[in-house]
Amino acid sequence: MSSLRFRVVEKAFQTKAREFSIPEERPSEYFGKYVFNREKMFKYLPGDVFAKLVDVIDNGAALDSGIADEVASGMKRWAMELGATHYTHWFQPLTEGTAEKHDAFVEHNGKGGMMEEFSGKLLVQQEPDASSFPNGGIRNTFEARGYSAWDPSSPVFVVDDTLCIPTIFISYTGESLDYKTPLLKALRAMNKAAVDVCHYFDPSVKKVFSYLGWEQEYFLVDEGLYAARPDLLLTGRTLMGHEASKNQQLEDHYFGAIPIRVAAFMKDLEIQALELGIPVKTRHNEVAPNQFELAPIYEECNLAVDHNMLIMSLMRKVARAHGFRVLLHEKPFKGINGSGKHNNWSLGTDNGIALMAPGKTAEENLRFITFIVNTLMAVYRHNGLLKASIMSATNAHRLGANEAPPAIISSFLGTQLSQVLDHLEVSTDEDMGVLVGKHGMKLDIPQIPELLIDNTDRNRTSPFAFTGNRFEFRAVGSEANCASAMIALNTAMAEQLTDFKRDVDEAMSDDVSKETAILQVLRRYIKTCKPIRFDGNGYSEEWKAEAARRGLDCETSCPVIFDNYLSESSVRMFTSTGVMTKVELEARNEVKWETYTKKIQIEARVLGDLAMNHIVPVATHYQSMLINNVYRLKELFDASEAEGMSAENISLIREIAERTAYIKKHVDDMVEARKVANRIDNVREKAIAYHDTIAPMLEQIRYHIDKLELIVDDQMWTLPKYRELLFIR
Ligand code: ADP
Ligand code: MG
């Protein structure tokens, strides 16, 4: 019965590492080979066009339609030399992936033949039929027009035979239908607010960048085994499967030697990533078996987001070439760690100052403390929203599930930085005033040696940890678009820095120096945002109670957490910064609720199918064999002897009967519960119904299936088991 399972397991065991081509050049030589970067722009564009385009990229100058044709023509020439025949606007709709529609360069030449053509108009703007992308009701199908517009701040690149142009995607009436539009607006708002604050310390600052360095965790599974698991195939996670006797308890996988087959995949992936200009740097085994991590050197946030989207699709492609499937789902396997995507985030200026790194002088440290405290304030004020920004049906399996970050946002600072803030909190104006007066810039700010901070104790349970020169937002899901978290965080920072500037300006007077005013405001903030600081164990029960006392958002229901986007403080934050309108927020929430419902719905269907046509039949078949055995024993032996010999089997027969009955009944109940939920019109209420009634049933049914897996004859079991999925290379 399960010959397929044994065949795929055997094949997976025997699969050798694949060959792949290693470039003859060094990485520094092939880095960015397929990217139209500055070097290429310089080579393929006329001098004046190059200068104008650089102005557009660096200073956000408007794109002069006069140069668009020449830019497009240069791009086309470069792309065609690499073998490209098509181009596409590449955008990030409100699904977890990217979207593209390829058009060939060909046009009629007017003489009955064809020619390669790519105009500025096609580069700059297009109108893909947008009606089938999630839009939360912003457009009805009869008003399907939306358009994509080039984002010159992210360079175009070639994948296979296609020139890919990063674009934003908006409705005809201007509402954003993607992740990039609000991200660019958030970055612009943050830049403006942060530059203003920087001017307290350095009037020459012109621009503040938001930096993002993501760490991408993922699982690899042999593709034959993957294909034999319909749940993995259709939902990205295993909906059933008993824990293997050995999983991660020995902690022997973390940083262990990378298996040869996996190493080949990683090398191939890295080469292709570098060719696409993604500066990948770090790779290692993660905690769980078959779990790995990949991290690049951090980049400007918008580019880093694009690169993460690109690498996720590259990973899928390269994995298949190596006979693997990559699992980006946050929780593919029960009982072992899930995958996250730590978002390392910091701010830095155009003149090279890292705003979240301690400095050497008191003045530098005042600036450092200013940005740290404002970050804490932003996170404190919007902790519920930040949680909503990383929440999804899939990431819900990680959050609060006694691993990875808890479902409460708090920030870990480490002993040293905590002490500095505590010290500032209790200091008085007099301390400060005297010192400022006497020594000019010599403020009473403790020296903070950079090295020490860099080695601060790590707290793996903290969802938002300070790590020396950046904050690490760990709660982001492995499958998510980083933009969601980055939009919320940078917008919160924009609002907070704007408020800070206003507060400091108000506090300054003839008697109160700028430094004193800054310290006064910071001291107040340190007191206000104290509830967000937590250095203890984020997984503990005590913390849940304590966090509730502190007034932090402790909600655990995914669809209810989404409400945070529509709270008064969130709407004020997004609208005052010009990042999103109320209509956009409402539409996006509709998409979130709908997506949530659909994901649970699909899981429920798949589990129902598998239960009824894999598990119950196999269990029943095994049960029949046992029954047969019981009868045969009766024929061979006298009644009392046969009874004694059959006792074990009879209890197994009973257990199988009970569990299969339970499974059948609950699959029926789940269908009924879906019918009830599906009749609810309100998308939010429907999502809540799916969360409250259907999601728990998945777990209950699974429980009995996993118990059956332990007693049914291994020969008969059709689905590859955890021990096979997780330990084969
Ligand atoms: P760890 O696992 O110790 O957190 P990794 O090396 O796996 O460290 O990843 C750290 C990530 O943080 C990398 O992507 C790195 O580029 C990024 N990073 C380092 N410094 C900064 C910074 N100042 N701002 C943003 N990201 C940073
Ligand atoms: Mg990290």
From TrEMBL:
Give residue ranges for domain GS catalytic.
Answer: 182-615
Molecular functions per Gene Ontology: glutamine synthetase activity
Q: Which SMART domains match?
A: Gln-synt_C (SM01230)
Family matches, as InterPro entries: Gln-synt_C, Gln_synt_N, Gln_synth/guanido_kin_cat_dom, Gln_synth_cat_dom, Gln_synth_gly_rich_site, GS_Type-3, GSIII_N
Which Pfam families does the record cross-reference, listed alphabetically? Gln-synt_C, Gln-synt_C-ter, GSIII_N
Q: Which domain of life is it from?
A: Bacteria
Residue ranges constituting the GS beta-grasp domain according to the UniProt record: 85-174
Q: Which GO terms describe its biological process?
A: glutamine biosynthetic process
The record's similarity note reads:
Belongs to the glutamine synthetase family.
* Name of the protein described by the UniProt record: Glutamine synthetase III
Query: What lineage does UniProt assign to this protein's organism?
Result: Bacteria, Pseudomonadati, Bacteroidota, Bacteroidia, Bacteroidales
